[in-house]
Amino acid sequence: MEIDENKKPERPVLITVLLILTFIGSGMSAFSFLFVSMSHDEVMKIVKEVYDFPGVEVILSAKKSYFTIGFVLYTISIMGAILMWKRRKTGFHLYTASQIFLIILPLTTIPNYQFSILPLLVTAAFIFAYSTNLKKMT
User: Which residue from 10, 99, 123, 136 has the fewest beta carbons nearer than 10 Å?
Assistant: First the structure.
């Protein structure tokens, strides 16, 4: 039996699941942010007329630039996940940077934004899980 020394180790199931969740979450977010960015005034008008829930005024105060920058950052997150799928360390760094900037984005662009710890904890958990497998990436 011949052993192929160039064969990369299998991707752990946990990382595969996390990557799929990243593709879904970042993909849906990128699409949503692009849609709102492209039709910001119309979407905000509809939200103002149709939705009445606590915190809706925070969403209404978000400018088009918030959604445009968010779209770019979610796209970078997807690119990072694609590279991690291919076992490239660069993907981890792209993903991590985009996620950190996504945590900071509403704090710097939305007036009266109330910071929530939950997105920070989820982001930290994903980054930590991905980082434990950096040695399996090139």
Answer: 10
How many separate domains does the chain show? 1
Domain that holds residue 61: 13-136
The answer, yes or no, to whether residue 6 has pLDDT greater than 60, is: yes
CB hemisphere CA count around 59 (13 angstroms): 17
Task: Examine residue 94 and state whether it is found in any structural domain, yes or no.
Answer: yes
Q: What is the pTM of this model?
A: 0.87
